[in-house]
# Entry
Amino acid sequence: MADSAADVHGLVALFRRPETNDEAEIVRPPGDLFPIHAYVRWRSPGPGRAAINDFLAGVTLFELVELASAVVQGTPFELPALRELGERDSWSLTQTGEALRLERDPGQRVELVDRTDMLLALELLVRTALEPFPADDETPTWAVRARAVYPQLLVALGGAEPFEPAEQHDFADGR
# Structure
């Protein structure tokens, strides 16, 4: 599996699923970038998880709610290429039964990934991104939308046990 995000400055939180010991990490950059540039990454190997990691690494917080809704509802999702704000390939996501079909740049890379693995990663990312935002009048609109889709993610998981915190490191402080 890919290297740990420990080489990235910021907070890295490790999460583990007790029923399987699968691990994922959330990387939260320091300062004003959180949670806009936070991302989730599977650490445990598994079929299609590297593709999920590559795909989710390019999703911005502002696209997250739409992506989560699409996966929950089984509708297609298009992630356009970005060249102005950083390099990101285009991706498309479609559902085929209990699998998701991820395609990077038309025809460049196509993988079938486990829908539950994607739902678990999205649940963890949405939950973590919402932590610093109380439900009040000052809540950003993306957080209001994320709070609405979060229960749908839990239902779509169909009883699969979500990740629990395992450990956290602040690499910006060298710990």
User: Anything to note?
Assistant: The chain has five helices and eight strands.
